[in-house]
Amino acid sequence: MFAIAITLLVLDLNVPAPADLHGQSLNRALAHQWPAYLAYLVSFLVIGIIWINHHSMCALARRVDRRTLFANLFLLLTVSVIPFPTRLLATYLTARASDAHTAAATYAATMLMMGLAFSLLFLAFTRDARLLHTPVPPDALRSAVRRFGIGGLCYAATIGLAYLSPLAMLAAHALLAIYYCFDQLAPARRAGA
Amino acid sequence: MFAIAITLLVLDLNVPAPADLHGQSLNRALAHQWPAYLAYLVSFLVIGIIWINHHSMCALARRVDRRTLFANLFLLLTVSVIPFPTRLLATYLTARASDAHTAAATYAATMLMMGLAFSLLFLAFTRDARLLHTPVPPDALRSAVRRFGIGGLCYAATIGLAYLSPLAMLAAHALLAIYYCFDQLAPARRAGA
Amino acid sequence: MFAIAITLLVLDLNVPAPADLHGQSLNRALAHQWPAYLAYLVSFLVIGIIWINHHSMCALARRVDRRTLFANLFLLLTVSVIPFPTRLLATYLTARASDAHTAAATYAATMLMMGLAFSLLFLAFTRDARLLHTPVPPDALRSAVRRFGIGGLCYAATIGLAYLSPLAMLAAHALLAIYYCFDQLAPARRAGA
Amino acid sequence: MFAIAITLLVLDLNVPAPADLHGQSLNRALAHQWPAYLAYLVSFLVIGIIWINHHSMCALARRVDRRTLFANLFLLLTVSVIPFPTRLLATYLTARASDAHTAAATYAATMLMMGLAFSLLFLAFTRDARLLHTPVPPDALRSAVRRFGIGGLCYAATIGLAYLSPLAMLAAHALLAIYYCFDQLAPARRAGA
Question: Measured between beta carbons, which residues in chain A are less than 8 angstroms from residue B27?
């Protein structure tokens, strides 16, 4: 499902219709679409990293219960909806400021929900030792929860940032994705394999 | 395939074109699309729950015969078509009453077909003990058939409800999905693992 | 990949825009789209049956060589392109006769290519006994080749039929799909498991 | 994910709207779209071959580390974006020369990135013997690196070719895909199974 959401993002990259060029060169028309490429790249990175992390989290699981299935469905909801705010941001990043802010805040709010869903899934897995191959030691768990809390605050802060600078908001999500890639896998590796 | 149908739903969420805002704020234009978000959420929930139930039903199966393959293909047909009535409902939920009724009844009828297909697949599996790891005890089977019958009547009733209130029809399907999630897995668990 | 092609078909079912109803009821506008539903159903059936048959053929395979990979890629090409002639037929089935014939012939030609690709894949598998778990006995092979030949002639005949009656062409493909479902699996079952 | 990208290509094949035929026959309107079919075929072939090669490379891997995950994500990015330059080329191949060159150069540049990403993934796998079932002998490795270098130069040359003849650029990529199919699998087979 991550594979599908990440691949559907490409449908948000529009090919300008020849009739819409109005004598302009295709080169310029394509260059003009830079917000679409940027939004595509950041969303691709975000979904890609969460895909890797989800995969490494599922590798820890021995079996799933109803609670984890629901948490997983909630995560899938937030991930599969990402092409919508991505398209929104691509369309309105260079529009008048108030609309750019709306689009950027919607984007940031979607990412906050996704971060929240990922944290819930992690908690659903780790709160019941029977669901895991190897129980996560209390220390690693406490530190993970603390990191999820800080991550949540960062995500929430990007909603505010969206009203100051939509571009800075997008850059912040690229950085958060890269940070999470290097950080999140650590406790899983330590505890699991 | 469930993964694909559930992810394709996001293509039904339209980004309003800047030229179509006519001075209105993007905020209002997005808020105006609430039927699309609602239809998206309910369809996501419905496909998500049937996905989980289908998965837990397939876990009971030891092998498949021609009959189950056909029943499964029929279920896939009803699930993969869901993005169409979802888009229909999103577009016409707030249109004039007669068109909203048509869209809502189409949505409810699709869900009735899907419920029927799921029941047929369940019967195709359980009527032949050789297809299962552990045979389903006659009691559990009778109670499942009774529950499917009641479920079918509920689905059929939502077609009528569509003509009274499309919104109530949509709410009914959200509730039915949640109900089936908690109910349907029970006999599978009891009989299987 | 079959799963994706079969699910993408739903994108060919258009929701009429409210502005295009011109006072007509949604009911009538939907009824007016019957060629789209019909083309959707037949293409779904065709892809579904080939999916089942491909699955049962792959179950016979112990390993693949370059030739089978290429034959498989050719089959995937013909299957993944099916949404295009389906959309074409849905749009032109009720257009002026010459365009309906073109659309129907394109549809029939795509199916002929798909049948050809399936036959090639079957031959690529069965010509080298080392690729199979159990070698297919010469009798079964000869009879399969004969059946593929007859099937190919039938598919080719539907291209002619497309110029007489596009609807009859569509019905013929529905019948051929159902026939292949019951027939094709037989030798695989006899030879394999 | 390759399966999804390869299947999404079909969405780039447009069915001409009846109102856009302006009395022309559907036959001619379809024939007029030959650049779209050609771009579809070449992109299908390119993704198909890289899919087979990626599969045979992954079969050599015993496990993955962070570096290979990132290299893999980069490859997925370049593959999943292919429908965009394909659509671009289909739309502008027969437009005025300067725009056709831009579209063709974008297509060639995407393929260059994909070739680069594939080489990086290969190096990420082979530089650490612990990631492989059987270490690749130094000779085979050196020869593979040399071949990747030559391949990269060929891909880069097609960007130049795009400004001379977009059609020749497309033909070059079809030939490169077929060449890579026969060549690339060889060292993997020799070293692996």
Answer: 98-99, 102
Report CA C58 to chain centroid distance, whole Å: 18
Q: At what angle do helices C166-191 and C138-164 cross, to 10 degrees?
A: 170
Give how far A185 is from chain B: nearest CA, Å.
25
Q: Under 8 Å CB-to-CB from A58, ≥6 apart: which residues?
A: none
CA–CA dist A87, B13 (Å, integer): 10
What are residue A132's DSSP bridge partners? A61
User: Using an 8 Å Cβ cutoff, are D128 and D65 in contact?
Assistant: yes
Tell me the C-alpha distance between A105 and A113, whole Å.
12
Question: CA D84 to CA D69: how far, in whole Å?
Answer: 24
Question: How far apart are alpha carbons D108 and D152 in whole angstroms?
Answer: 11
B31 CA to centre of own chain: 25
Put simply, the chain A residues between 130 and 149 with a CB less than 8 A from any chain D CB are none
**If pLDDT is split at 50, 70 and 90, which confidence band does A163 have?**
very high
The beta-carbon neighbor of C7 closest among B1, B95, B106 is: B1
Residue type, D2: F
What is the nearest CA distance from D142 to chain A, expressed in angstroms?
Answer: 31
In the block, residue with structure tokens 């909801």: A77
For the beta carbon of residue D77, count every other beta carbon within 10 angstroms.
20
On chain D, the residues whose CB falls within 8 A of the CB of A182 are: 66
Question: What are the φ and ψ backbone dihedral angles of C61, each rounded to 5 degrees?
Answer: -85, 135
| Token code pair at residue B165 | 């209130």
The token pair at A50 is 């969460």
Dump the DSSP string for C4-67.
HHHHHGGGGSPPPPGGGSTT--HHHHHHTTHHHHHHHHHHHHHHHHHHHHHHHHHTTBS---HH
Q: Which residues contact C95 (CB under 8 A, 6 or more apart)?
A: C103, D18, D26
Residue among A18, A52, A181 whose CB faces D95 most closely: A18
Q: Return d(Cα A134, Cα A130) in angstroms, integer.
A: 9
The residue with tokens 């990402």 is: A82
Report CB contact under 8 Å: A102, B30.
yes
Residue with tokens 């790891």: B133
Please state, in angstroms and rounded to a whole number, the distance separating the CA atoms of residues C116 and D188. Answer: 31
pLDDT band at A129 (very low <50, low <70, confident <90, very high): confident
- pLDDT tens readout for residues B62-73: 777 778 888 889
Rounded to a whole number of angstroms, the distance from the CA of C16 to the nearest CA of chain B is 8
Interface check for C24 against chain B (CB to CB < 8 A): the answer is no
Residue B75 neighbours by CB under 8 Å, 6+ apart: B54, B114, B117, B118, B120, B121
In the stretch 52-81 of chain C, residues with CB closer than 8 A to chain D read 66, 69-70, 73, 76-77, 80-81
pLDDT per residue over C106-159, tens digit each? 999 999 999 999 989 888 888 777 777 777 788 888 888 888 888 889 999 999
Residue B17 Cα, gap to closest chain A Cα (Å): 8
Q: How does residue D183 score in pLDDT terms, banded at 50, 70 and 90?
A: low
Q: Report the pLDDT value the prediction gives residue D126, as an integer from 0 to 100.
A: 81
**What backbone phi and psi angles, to 5 degrees, belong to A132?**
-110, 155
Q: What are phi and psi of B111, to 5 degrees?
A: -65, -35
Question: H-type helices in chain B, by residue range?
Answer: 2-8, 26-31, 34-58, 66-80, 83-92, 97-126, 138-164, 166-191
Q: What is the mean pLDDT of residues B116-126?
A: 87
Task: Closest CB to B6: pick one of A66, A80, A95.
Answer: A80
